[in-house]
Each structure stands twice: as structure tokens, then as C-alpha cells.
Amino acid sequence: MAGHWRTRVGTVSVGLLLASTLGACGSGSASTGTPTLNWYINPDNGGQATIAAACSEASNGAYTIETSILPSQAAAQREQLMRRLAGNDTSIDLMSLDPVFVPETSEAGFLAEIPADLQQRLSDGVVDGAVQAATWKGRLVAAPFWANTQLLWYRKSVAQAAGLDMTKPVTWQQLIDAAKAQDTAIGVQGTRAESMTVWVNALIASAGGEVIENPEAKGPDIRLGLDSDAGRAAAQVMEQITAAGVAGPGIDNRDESATANLFQQDGADFMVNWPFVYAQAKSAAEGGTMDAAVFEDYGWTTYPEVVAGTPSAPPLGGIDIGVSAFSEHRAEAFEAVQCIVSQENQAAYMLSDGNPAALTAVYDDPAVQADFPMAETIRQSLEQAAPRPQTAYYNEVSQGIQDRWQPVSEVTGSTPAASGEFIGQVLRGEKLL
Amino acid sequence: MSSTTTARAGATAAGPGGRKGKVRATDRARAEARLGWYLAGPAFVILVGVTGYPILQALYESLFSFRLTAPADREFIGLRNYGVILTDSLWWSAMGNTVLITVVTVAVELVIGFALAMVMHKVLGWLRPVVRTAILVPYAVITVVSAYAWQYAFGLTTGFMNAVLPFVGADFDWFANKWTALTVICLSEIWKTTPFISLLLLAGLAQVPDDMLEAAKVDGATARERLFRVTLPNMKASIMVALLFRALDAFRIFDNVYIMTKGAAGTETLSALAYNQTISRLEIGLGSAVSVLLFLCVLVICFIAIKVFGVDLARARGES
């Protein structure tokens, strides 16, 4: 009797469990008729979830957006999205994409085509670099949401002591000399990660070159521009930094966060980094973990020049919103995209999460100007910025650069040629990576 | 305890599964063998399915040039992927690192694991469960978590080891140099998996007959002689199984390298190489070929262990 009772309880429990599991698999709002859009987001301070809730409410029941968080590293985000999309996963409607992976996602047919009129609306008023980064083969394939760029950060007192006029653009050579004279370091990112490609690309682009000459070509046909005067000029900057002993401690494992900490803790008085460092320092100063006087000493200007007199091409980052080609609610997803990237939401996101907007008009917002005293410098930097190589084989190119340009202490004049040859072999399927 | 287990092991050897001897199987033995297949058969079929299918698929995919994001460009290229891999210095460098990590970690773990097994075996009273739990704690930690803990401990900005160790400066970057990075990777691996070896060896220690040890003592054997002449020979099966299991495990090392260096500073291992081609580059053909070669390496280790060193898995299982 007791056995029967247990069996029955067990059967009912399994039944309930299955029912709840199956229920969870289906669209939660099927009974209400409101489609649920699943938005895969990069981790942030909650700004995207807030926008998702706001847009859901503003849609008046046309759709509900739910967010799913991707891994923190851009490469890991790509790995997860690509594998899901290759499996025609219909559970993805919207994706926060790092611009460098937009060409690959589009080329594979994973992004839903944006209607022509919408392409125009989504590009209007957006900084050039961000539109360029979201464009593949002449068409806008994702919506620019926010656009990041690196600035040159410095301690005002140290720059002054070194005799640098920071109201004018400075060169890497000037920075190296100043850092050496002041016995300090320049915070650069030398770890084997995407930040290394960011740096190499910015140096080459600032010297007037480009990493890839024919970005739309198939892997084996790609022509690399690393073995060039611009490539050698980039290598020379790195060589000089290590030769002058101004790379600072732990450069070979230093990413953006470690660089920000080094600068914050007085380990370096110059640094190239994304604007998050300002919000981080401000919060540390307010929290009492950093001397307020040090925070007051923070200065910023545009990215250093490689060639004196030639404006630099600062790194460009950010996030674009893509609609999955396998989404079952494409029309609603495109509606949602327009809401997400609206000027109001971009301004709110910049204020809440510290990520610079892609729309230039946001920088005129008094609230943004109050919170970001460097807003104008960011806008100028975004206008000058150069995207990283736009290719469907970005991962190979980036990893190849990371492999051959790291550690920084071993970069020589022959590194550009060697890395170009290596990446070419990888793209032709002749080498492992 | 030991006599009971020995008796059970003996029964297993002479039982229905045993094919030795010319004695004709009785009806009962045949029925037991049949029952054994009925019970184990489904699990066996599932196991072959879940392991065999991916292995065969990897073997098939390895013959193609196939990128996950460009399925239309898929092309049969025969054994070219294997040619690319085996002529690439990166493969051999990763092979060298993997073999080095395997040899160093397994050797050190065996020595420390044996010492810990002795402690767990000898300690008595209320201390016994406390000591056993304390020794086993690292094994309960997830490898990724352990890797992060070691990375943070040795990291330049987060770590405290530079302050603790007298022979390095405050600015010493452990992960910038191949040998120092491999040292931390090995240390993490050893810390994490020594308890596993000590558990296997503890089971072996429990099988060493006490009367044999006592007889050796009465005959005047020193502690050292008892260890090398009585204890270790009687534990051979357990030691060999521990060696084989850990060697296979260590050869597939991935987590520690991925977390600590991502293969930078020349610390690439074979599993990391397979991951990079398959998951990161999405080159399914090339990655499958790396995986197949890795699988063959594991098979070779098994072959050497079983044929050359005579590891008897069935006996070891019966004893433990």
C-alpha cells in the first residue's frame, strides 16, 4: 500500500516537473498573445535590462523583452552566440554584438536583413565610425547602440612637470620621453587578449595604414597590411616603450582593468584606456578608497599620435544590436531595436552605465555633459576613430596579432612581417592558431 | 576488512565473468552471466552510443575543410588537416607542455598522495574523519575555481605570493614567463588532484594484510624495508590504476591553462589547442583532427599502461 502511494506521489511529481519544464520551454506569454523577445546582452550595470523593461512597457503590449546575459569577454560572447546561431536557435531575437563580430555574423547569414528605410533611420545622427562598424558589404546590418573610444588619460601635475602642453595633440614619442623623465610609466594593455589587437590596430591606423587591405575577401584571399611602413611604425612605438623602461610592471598580463588600477594606484601617470576609468575613479574617490586629490588630478585628451601632425585614429568599440535571422518575431524585434537605440535610451544608458552613446546629439544633453566633463573629447575621438579590421575572419586576424605581438618586450621591426605571414598561413588553413 | 575484500575479489575472478580454466559453466553461472548482461547491457549500449558517436563524427569531420559559419564552403580534403597539424611547431610545443605537465604532476602527486594516504590510514580516533575531510577538500573544489584562486594568488595586481616568497621581487610576473607560468599551473593541478590519488592509494593501503606487516616486523624488517618489501608490492595494482587515471586526466589538462594564461607565454596544451581550433575559430575540420590526435595519444597511454606496465583494471576495481 505504502509502495503504491510512493509510486503515485513519484509519478505526480515527475508529471508536474515535466509540465513545468515544458511550460518554461515555450513562450511564457503565449496565453496573453504578447510575443517575448529574448535579448542576449553583454554584462553591464543593469542598464540594458532597464531599457528592456522600459521598451516593453512603451510597446503597449506589442512585445515583451527579456534579457539573457552573455559571458563578460567579447570572444566568449561570440563563441556562445555563433554556436547557437549555427544551430538555428530560434530563442535568440536580439543580440548585443561587439562591432568586430558583426561582419562574421552577417556573412554567415545569422543577421536578419534590416529594411532599407530602417537602415537610414538607424544611421541618422550616429558617429561615422559606429555606422562603418555596423555596415557589411554596403548595408547596415546591425543598429549602433553605443560607441566606445579610448582616450589618453594623464595626471595633470605630472604632465605639467614634464612640460607637456596637453591642449594640443601629443605623440607617443613625447609621452615616452615625458614618462622617462618623470620616472613613471605609460599604462598600455599588453596581455594576450583583444586589448592587444585594439592597441596594434590603433597604432597602425594612426600611422596611416590598415591591418587588412581587402576586408570583404574570403579567408585565403585576404591581403594583410601589417608588413608596411605603418606596421613598422606601430612596432617601433612598442619597442621604444619597452626600451625606455616605461611599460610599467606586469605589462604582459595587463588588461584594461589592470591598467586602470595601475593608474589609480600611482603606478603609471599616463594611460590609454576607455572612459570607464573615469567613472571607476570617481566612485573610488567618493567611496574613500582613493585620495580625492588624485581624482582631481585626472586629465584627458585624444589618443596620442604616431606621426606628429597626423591626427590619431583612436580605437573604436561599443555595442551594436542585431536581430537574429532565426527569430520568430522579426517585425517586433525591429520595433524593439528602434526603441532600444533611441536618443532617450542612449542618454539614459550613458548616464547609468558610463558607456558613450553612438548618437552625437546625446553629447549635447546637459545631464550627460554634467556627468561626463570629457564628453566633447569623447565625441571628437569617436569622429576620428578607426574600426578594427572588418572581416568575417576577424577572430583569426585578432588572435594572430595577439599571438605574434605579445609579449610586447619581444616586438621588433620584424614583427609586422612575421605576424602578417603567420596570419596569412592561418587564413589559408596551413597553420594552427 | 581486508580478508573480506580479498575473498570478494577472488569470487569475482572465478565468477561467471571469468573465462579462465576449463571448467564448464554451470546453468547457474550462465544465468548469472545473462543477468549481468541484462543489468549492464543498457548502460553499456548508451555509453558506447554517447562516446562512440562523437568519436566517429570527429573522425569524419577531420577529413573536411569545414568552418561552422560557412557550411556551403565545406570541402573534402582527406588527411590534409593531419598534415597541417603534425608539421606545425605549435602542435609539438603543445605536446611537449602537455607531456611535461603530465609527468611532473603525476610524479609529485604520487609521492605526496602516498604520504597523505598513509596519514589517513594511520590516524585514529576522532581525528580520522577530520584529517580525511581536510585532505579531500581541494578535490571538492571545482577546477575552474581552483585555477582562479591560484591565478589571483600569484597575479601581479591581486596576488600575495610575491610578498610571501623571499626569492622573488614585488614586481615579479609569474605568468609572463613560460617556466614560471607552468610552475603555477602544475602547482594548482597538484593541489587540486593529489587527494584523488591519495584516495585511490588509501584503498590500496587498506588491502595490505596486517598479519603480513606484523610478520615482517617480527622478522626484524625495518620500517623502510616493510614499506618497500611489503606495503608497496601489495599495492601495485592500486598504484598503477592511480597512475593511469591521473595520467589520462593530466594529459587532457585544459581549465588551469585556459584560466591562467590562455596559452600565452608558450603554455599551450593539446586540449587548449583543440578548443582554440574548434570552439574559438569554429574550424570544425581542423579542430576535429586535433581532437582525434589527442584521442590517439590517450589510447597510446592506455596501451602502454595496460600492456607494458600491466595495469589490471578488473583486479583493481575488485580490490577497491
Briefly say what this structure is.
The complex is a heterodimer of chains A (433) and B (320). Chain A contains 19 helices and 11 strands.
Average predicted local confidence, pLDDT of chain B: 87
Order of helices and strands of chain A: HEHEHEHHHEEEEHHEHHHEHHEEHHHHHH
Q: Supply the CATH superfamily name of the domain at 90-271 and 293-319 in chain B.
A: MetI-like
Strand content bin of chain B: under 5%
Q: Main β-sheet of chain B: number of strands, strand sense, barrel status?
A: 2 strands, antiparallel
What is the CATH top level name of the largest domain in chain A? Alpha Beta
CATH fold topology of the domain at 90-271 and 293-319 in chain B: MetI-like fold
Nearest-integer average pLDDT of chain A: 91
Oligomeric grouping of the chains: heterodimer
Q: What spatial form of chain A do the alpha-carbon principal axes imply? A: globular
SSE ordering of chain B: HHEEHHHHHHHHHHHHH
Specify the structural class of chain B. Answer: mainly alpha
State the helicity of chain B in percent bands. Answer: over 70%
Structural class determined from secondary elements of chain A: alpha/beta
Count of all domains of chain A: 2
Q: Could you give the count of β-strands of chain A?
A: 11
CATH level-two architecture of the domain at 90-271 and 293-319 in chain B: Orthogonal Bundle
Share of β-strand residues of chain A: 5-15%
Give the biggest beta sheet of chain A.
5 strands, mixed
Strand order of the largest sheet of chain A: 2-1-3-11-6
List the helices and strands and how they pair.
The complex is a heterodimer of chains A (433) and B (320).
Chain A: H1 2-25, E1 36-41, H2 47-58, E2 64-69, H3 74-86, E3 94-97, H4 102-107, H5 116-123, H6 128-133, E4 135-136, E5 139-140, E6 143-146, E7 151-155, H7 156-161, H8 172-181, E8 186-187, H9 194-206, H10 229-243, H11 256-264, E9 270-273, H12 276-287, H13 292-296, E10 298-301, E11 319-323, H14 330-340, H15 343-353, H16 366-371, H17 375-384, H18 394-405, H19 415-427
Parallel strand pairs in A: 1-2, 1-3, 8-9
Antiparallel strand pairs in A: 3-11, 4-5, 6-11, 7-9, 7-10
Chain B: H1 2-14, H2 27-61, E1 64-65, E2 75-76, H3 80-86, H4 89-122, H5 127-140, H6 143-154, H7 161-164, H8 178-206, H9 210-218, H10 223-234, H11 236-251, H12 255-260, H13 270-280, H14 284-308, H15 313-319
Antiparallel strand pairs in B: 1-2
